[in-house]
Design a protein that fits this description.
5-stranded mixed β-sheet, 7 strands, 31% strand, elongated
């Protein structure tokens, strides 16, 4: 039984690794630079406000999210052709928007509910970023266009 479980895990890992490597044509052929390592960072031709506006117009919050100040840390890669790939949401901070003077101790169910909300918002962040199809001016390094990892914090105040 133990060998069967290990075999299934290996097959699952191998399959997902193959999908990940073929998902992006640039993944195996070019180095991905950090924004701090390039000469010119990726830019949106119409300005970064277009991404912020697009996210605010298309993002759908879980119904239970109220009175929260939310920061979603996301990242994506801007390819040499100006397309956005590898969209991820890797961390979310949620705080009360209007602080209360009363200390509230969360129940186990409330903690589980908040974790579900966070996972839902991570998935929603990726969904919305994948919908954004505007072409970027790619990063350059030594006069050549390069892949560049772009970190993008998203902030919301929900009353």
């Amino acid at each position: 039984m133990k060998h069967l479980v290990l075999l299934l895990l290996f097959i699952t890992y191998s399959t997902s690794a193959q999908v990940a490597s073929t998902d992006n044509e640039y993944a195996t052929t070019e180095k991905t630079y950090r924004a701090s390592d390039v000469d010119f960072k990726p830019q949106l031709k119409d300005g970064m406000y277009t991404l912020s506006l697009f996210i605010s117009e298309n993002f759908k919050f879980p119904e239970a999210v109220k009175n929260k100040k939310i920061t979603i840390f996301s990242s994506f890669v801007i390819e040499p052709d100006g397309t956005m790939t590898n969209q991820k949401a890797f961390h979310i901070i949620m705080k009360d928007y209007i602080p209360s003077n009363v200390v509230k101790i969360a129940t186990e169910d409330e903690k589980i509910n908040e974790l579900d909300q966070i996972e839902t918002m991570k998935a929603e962040t990726v969904r919305v970023l994948k919908l954004f199809k505007k072409t970027w001016t790619p990063a350059t390094k030594d006069g050549k266009t390069v892949r560049c990892l772009f970190n993008y914090p998203i902030n919301f105040n929900i009353e």
